[in-house]
Design brief:
The structure holds 2 protein chains of 2 kinds. Chain A has a single domain, classed as 2-Layer Sandwich (Alpha-Beta Plaits), CATH 3.30.70.20. In chain A, the strands form 3 sheets. Chain A has a two-stranded antiparallel ribbon with strand order 1-2. A two-stranded antiparallel sheet of chain A has the order 3-4. Helix content of chain A is 20%, strand content 18%. By secondary structure, chain A is of the alpha+beta class. The two termini of chain A are 27 Å apart. In chain A, β1 and β2 form a beta hairpin. Chain A is built from 6 helices and 6 strands. Chain A is globular, with a radius of gyration of 16 Å. By secondary structure, chain B is of the alpha/beta class. Chain B has 3 domains: 206 residues, Rossmann fold (3-Layer(aba) Sandwich); 231 residues, Dimethylsulfoxide Reductase, domain 2 (3-Layer(aba) Sandwich); 125 residues, Barwin-like endoglucanases (Beta Barrel), CATH 2.40.40. The radius of gyration of chain B is 25 Å and the shape is globular. Classes of the chains: A alpha+beta, B alpha/beta. At the A-B interface, α1, β1, β2, α4 and α5 of A face β3, α1, α5, α6 and α23 of B.
Chain lengths: 164, 738
C-alpha cells in the first residue's frame, strides 16, 4: 500500500509489490508464511532478453532493471516479458497505454539517497535494499523461502534470511 | 520518460502530520503536498504507519466525501439528500433542537459520540460541551471496545492502566497473546516490531485464538484454538493446575493480594462441587486438557512470562471474568510489577493514558463541563451495578431499546432528538435491524461526519466535517503510549467542510450560548496541548512541537506497571479499597450479583457452545477487527477493499456439511437478521466457529437482507453484567445461496 500510494498506482489490476500468503496444513496443525515480492532486478533478466524492441534494460550504474515506455510495444501486441518472468512481475497499465510497468526500485528516492518506500514503510524492518555484495555481508547467501523458487536462469538479486 | 527519476518534485511541501483513526495505533507521517494537493505520505523513521495510513489519501479525496451540508429528501435510510447552505443547516438543527427541548425537556435529547476522529480538539467533546451548556442531554456509557477490561482492572487493581510499554516484550521468556492480533488491528504502533525482536531473542510465543491470524502466523510457536466466550474457563483450569502442582508464588499472593483462598475454594469445587480441572475446561473450550495443563505448567515455571490479553475475549457475555482471571493468573505466577511480566488484565500502558473522549476525566480535551441532567447525584444503588450505571446514561448495547421504549422501558428519557458525531452507531452497535426501527421512530437526527455512512442515511441534516489532514490537531497514542503527536493541517478543507470544533461553536451561537468559547481554535489547541501534567513535562514549546510533529515522553523505559507497588508495598499500596490486588473484591461481594461474583468465575455465556439455541444456530460467530478498517472507517476506500476482501471465515469441516465452496456467496443468519457475504473456506479457523471482520457498511436490499455484510445485523443487543459489549458472542447458521 505504501508503494501504491507513493507511485499513485490507481488501477486495481496493478500492484508493483504484492504479499502472498502461503498456507499449509490441516487444522490445527498449520503453517502460514508471507512472501513480499516485487521486481527482483535479476542479474540476467529474462524479461530484457526476450524484449523485441529492447525496451527493458539493466542500468549499468546500479543494476536496476528499467523499462523505456516509449520503446515498449505493450499489450496486446507483445507481452513477452510477462511470459518470461518467473515471478509474474510485468504488468500493463491501462492508464498508460498498456505499457509494461513494474517496480523501479523508487528511482526518485534512491536518487535522493533514500531507501525505496517499501523498505522505509515496513513496520518489521524486514526489507532492505543495497548492492548484492553488501546484502550478503549483512544477511548471508540464503535464497530459500516458502512460495519462492530461485531461478538459476534469471539469478534474481535477492537474499532471503530465514525467520528464527 | 521518467528514467532517472531523481529530479525533485516541484513545489513540494512536506507537512509533519499523522493520526488516522481508532485502529489501535497512532502514527506520525509526513504528507507531501504539491500545489495545495496532498499526493502521498512518507513514514516516520521509527513509528511506522500501516495500510490504513497509506490508504488515507483516497479517503480524504474520495468522491463520496460529504462536502456540503445536506438535508434529507427521501425516506429515512434511503439515502436521498439535497445540498443546502450552512446557514440553513445550522438554523434547522437549532430550531428543531430548541423546539424539542422546550416541548419534551433535555432528557429527550440523545447524543452519541465515538472514536471517528483521532484528535484531542476535534472529536465529540465540543458537541458534549455544547449540550452540557444547553441544559444537558443523555449520553451512552460502556466502551464498545474495552469495558470488560476497564471493569476488571478497576476492580482488581484500582486503575485501568495495567500494561507495560511494548519495548519490555524483549525481556519476557514466554509471551501468551490471548486473542491479540497486533499485526492486523494494530495494538499500539510498533508492537509487532517488539514482538519480532522478542522472538529473535528466543522468547516462546503462544497465541490463543479461534482464528490462525497473521499474528499467529508470524510469531507463534504454538497456536491454541479456543471456542469463543469460553476463555475464562481455560484460565481457571490453568489456575487449578498451578495450585494442584504447588507452583503458585505463595509469597507474592501473601504479600500483594487478598482473597486467594476464596478463589482456591472455587477451583477445588468446595463452593459448587465442581472441580475446575483441565477436563472440565476441555468440555467447554474445546482445548485438549493436556494442552491446558502444559501451558499452565510452562506459564508458572518460565519466568518472567507475559500474559497479554486482547480486549476481544472480553467482548463476550460475562467477558469481565476473562480479564479478572488473567489478572489472577499473573498474580499466582508473580508476573506483576516485574520486567518481562504483565498484569494480564487490561493492556493499556501506564504512560500517557487517554481513554478517549467518552471518559470526561480524560486529559487533553476541551473542557466539556458537567451534564446538568447528571447533577442530581441520586446515590442509591451500588456503583458497580449495571442499573446504577444506567441511571443517567444508556448502555452502549441498549441504545436502540432505549429509543424504542424510553422511560417505560426503564431508560432515563423519552428520546426525540439524536445527535451523532464521529460515530456510526447503526453499523457499530449490536442489532442493526432494531437500530433501523429505532432511527425511524425519532423526530430529528443530525449526523456530523466525513461520509454518508449507514447511520447518516437516516439523518435529517448532515453536517460535513474536516478530516485531520484539513485541520491542525493534537493527538495522543491510542489508549496510552510514550509520545505525543501534532497533526499539522496539510490541505485546505474539502468542499465546505468545517472542523468539529467550528461546527459546535457555530451551532452554539445559534442556540444563544454566548459564552461557548472565549478562544479561537488555535488558542484552544495550545491550551489543550498543555492541559495535562505529562504533556507539560514532555513538550517544551508549542512551536517546537508543531514543527517536530512528535514529542517523546520523558520517562524511563521500559515502563513496568506496578513496579513501585511490588518493590515497596507499604509506601505504594494499590489504589483498591484494600490497597492490594483484589482477587476477592468486597465491593463485588456487597453487590451480591451472581453474574458479577467477588472472585473471577466462569459463567455460562448466553449463545455459547452450551446454549440450547446452538441446535438451531450451530455456529459461533466472532466479529474481529479488520486489517484495512478502523471500525467502520475506511470501508468505502477501494484500495483497501482490494487488499483484503470482506469474507466469512469458515472451516472446511463446516463448509463441506453445507455444500459451501471457497469464494461462494452465502447467507449468514439468526433470529436478528441476515447478511450475504462471500465464504473464505480455510483451515485457519476452528470448526464450529465462523468469523467476519466488523465494520463493513450495512446495505440492506428491498427485503432487508444486508448485502454489505455488517456483523451487527447478527449480534445481540445485550450488555454484559460489567458493561461489556459482547460482539463476539452470537450464534448463527450459514447456508449457501440457491
Amino acid at each position: 500500500m505504501a508503494c501504491r500510494q507513493w507511485h499513485s498506482i490507481d488501477q486495481e489490476v496493478m500492484s508493483w509489490r504484492r504479499v502472498e500468503a502461503i498456507e499449509n496444513g490441516i487444522f490445527p496443525d498449520l503453517k502460514v508464511s508471507f512472501l513480499s515480492i516485487s521486481c527482483l532486478h535479476c542479474q540476467t533478466p529474462p524479461c530484457a532478453s526476450v524484449c523485441p524492441p529492447s525496451a527493458i534494460f539493466k542500468r549499468e550504474q546500479d543494476g536496476v532493471v528499467l523499462v523505456d515506455s516509449e520503446k515498449c510495444l505493450g499489450e496486446p501486441d507483445c507481452g513477452f516479458c510477462k511470459e518470461a518472468c518467473p515471478y509474474r512481475i510485468p504488468q500493463f497499465n491501462p492508464d498508460h497505454n498498456l505499457k509494461m510497468e513494474k517496480c523501479n526500485l523508487c528511482l526518485d528516492r534512491i536518487g535522493l539517497d533514500k531507501q525505496p518506500i517499501c523498505v522505509d514503510a515496513c513496520p518489521m524492518h524486514a526489507l532492505d535494499v543495497a548492492p548484492l555484495n553488501k546484502l550478503s555481508r549483512r544477511y548471508g547467501h540464503g535464497n530459500v523461502a516458502d512460495g519462492f523458487n530461485f531461478s538459476n536462469e534469471a539469478k534474481p538479486s535477492i537474499i532471503l534470511k530465514r525467520k528464527k | 520518460m521518467k528514467l532517472d527519476g531523481s529530479a525533485k518534485t516541484k513545489n513540494l511541501k512536506v507537512i509533519v502530520s499523522g493520526g488516522c483513526h481508532d485502529c489501535g495505533g497512532r502514527c506520525p507521517y509526513s504528507i507531501h503536498v504539491v500545489n495545495g494537493k496532498a499526493v502521498r505520505i512518507e513514514p516516520h523513521e521509527e513509528l511506522k504507519a500501516c495500510v490504513r495510513g497509506y490508504g488515507y489519501i483516497k479517503r480524504v479525496y474520495s468522491p463520496d466525501r460529504l462536502k456540503y451540508p445536506m438535508k434529507r429528501t427521501g425516506a429515512r435510510g434511503e439515502g436521498h439528500f439535497q445540498r443546502i447552505s450552512w446557514e440553513e443547516a445550522l438554523e434547522t438543527v437549532a430550531k428543531n433542537l430548541k423546539t424539542i427541548k422546550e416541548t419534551y425537556g433535555p432528557s429527550s435529547i440523545l447524543c452519541q459520540g465515538s472514536s471517528g476522529s483521532p484528535g484531542r480538539l476535534h472529536n465529540p467533546a465540543p458537541i458534549y460541551r455544547l449540550f452540557n451548556m444547553l441544559g444537558g442531554c443523555v449520553y451512552r456509557w460502556g466502551s464498545a471496545s474495552a469495558e470488560a477490561a476497564y471493569f476488571a482492572a478497576w476492580v482488581t487493581f484500582g486503575t485501568h492502566a495495567t500494561g507495560h510499554t511494548k519495548d519490555d516484550l524483549i525481556n519476557s521468556k514466554l509471551i501468551i497473546l490471548w486473542g491479540l492480533n497486533p499485526t492486523e488491528n494494530i495494538w499500539g504502533t510498533n508492537t509487532s516490531f517488539h514482538l519480532i525482536k522478542a522472538k529473535e531473542e528466543g522468547t516462546k510465543i503462544v497465541c490463543v485464538d479461534p482464528r490462525f491470524t497473521n499474528t499467529t502466523a508470524l510469531f507463534s510457536d504454538q497456536w491454541i484454538p479456543i471456542r469463543p466466550s469460553t476463555d475464562t474457563a481455560m484460565m481457571i483450569a490453568m489456575a487449578y493446575v498451578i495450585i494442584k502442582n504447588g507452583l503458585q508464588d505463595d509469597h507474592f499472593l501473601e504479600t500483594y493480594t487478598i482473597g486467594f483462598d476464596q478463589f482456591k475454594d472455587y477451583l477445588l469445587g468446595e463452593e459448587d462441587r465442581i472441580e475446575k480441572t483441565p477436563k472440565w475446561a476441555e468440555s467447554l473450550t474445546g482445548v485438549p486438557s493436556k494442552v491446558i495443563e502444559n501451558l499452565a505448567i510452562e506459564y508458572s515455571t518460565v519466568k518472567p512470562a507475559a500474559l497479554i490479553p486482547s480486549f476481544a475475549p472480553g467482548r463476550t457475555a460475562y467477558g469481565e471474568q476473562f480479564h479478572r482471571a488473567g489478572a489472577v493468573l499473573s498474580a499466582m505466577t508473580g508476573n506483576i510489577g516485574i520486567s518481562g511480566g504483565s498484569p494480564g488484565c487490561c493492556d493499556i500502558p501506564t504512560v500517557g493514558v487517554s481513554p478517549g473522549p467518552n471518559m470526561p476525566s480524560s486529559p487533553s480535551l476541551i473542557p466539556i463541563g458537567e451534564n446538568p441532567l447528571e447533577k442530581e447525584k441520586k446515590e442509591a444503588g451500588h456503583p458497580l451495578s449495571f442499573d446504577f450505571r444506567s441511571r443517567y446514561k444508556v448502555h452502549n448495547t441498549k441504545l436502540w431499546d432505549a429509543i424504542l421504549n424510553g422511560r417505560k422501558g426503564g431508560y432515563p428519557g423519552d428520546f426525540k432528538f439524536f445527535y451523532v458525531v464521529c460515530a456510526n452507531p447503526l453499523n457499530q452497535i449490536p442489532n442493526t435491524n432494531k437500530g433501523v426501527q429505532a432511527l425511524k421512530s425519532l423526530d430529528f437526527i443530525v449526523v456530523q461526519d466525513h461520509f454518508i455512512n449507514s447511520t447518516a442515511k437516516f439523518a435529517d441534516i448532515l453536517l460535513p466535517a474536516t478530516t485531520h489532514w484539513e485541520r491542525d490537531d493534537y493527538m495522543r497514542p491510542w489508549l496510552g503510549g510514550d509520545y505525543h503527536l501534532f497533526g499539522n493541517q496539510a490541505i485546505e478543507p474539502i468542499g465546505e467542510t468545517k472542523s468539529d470544533f467550528q461546527i459546535a461553536w457555530e451551532l452554539a451561537k445559534r442556540l444563544g450560548i454566548r459564552d461557548y468559547s472565549d478562544k479561537i481554535e488555535e488558542e484552544w489547541l495550545e491550551e489543550i496541548v498543555f492541559s495535562s501534567p505529562d504533556s507539560r513535562r514532555d513538550i517544551e514549546s508549542y512551536e517546537g512541537f508543531r514543527s517536530n510533529g512528535v514529542a517523546t515522553a520523558k520517562v524511563k523505559r521500559p515502563m513496568i506497571a506496578f513496579k513501585d507497588q511490588i518493590r515497596d508495598p507499604r509506601r505504594f499500596p494499590f489504589s483498591t479499597p484494600s490497597g492490594k490486588i483484589e482477587i476477592f473484591s468486597k465491593d463485588l461481594a456487597d453487590l451480591n450479583d451472581p453474574v458479577l461474583p467477588p472472585i473471577p468465575k466462569y459463567i455460562e455465556p448466553w449463545e455459547g457452545p452450551q446454549d440450547p439455541l446452538i441446535q438451531k444456530f450451530p455456529l459461533q460467530l466472532i466479529t474481529f477487527h479488520f486489517k484495512t478498517r478502523a471500525h467502520s472507517n475506511f470501508y468505502n476506500i477501494q484500495w483497501l477493499r482490494e487488499l483484503e476482501p470482506h469474507q466469512i471465515w469458515i472451516n472446511p469441516v463446516d463448509a463441506v456439511q453445507r455444500g459451501i465452496e471457497d469464494g461462494q456467496k452465502v447467507k449468514v443468519f439468526n433470529d436478528r437478521g441476515e447478511i450475504w457475504i462471500h465464504a473464505k473456506v480455510t483451515q485457519r479457523i476452528m470448526p464450529g466457529v465462523v468469523a467476519i471482520g466488523q465494520g463493513a457498511w450495512y446495505s440492506p436490499d428491498a427485503k432487508g437482507i444486508d448485502q454489505g455484510g455488517c456483523t451487527n445485523v447478527l449480534t445481540r443487543d445485550e450488555g454484559s453484567s460489567g458493561g461489556a459489549t459482547p460482539t463476539n458472542t452470537a450464534l448463527v447458521e450459514v447456508r449457501k445461496l440457491e
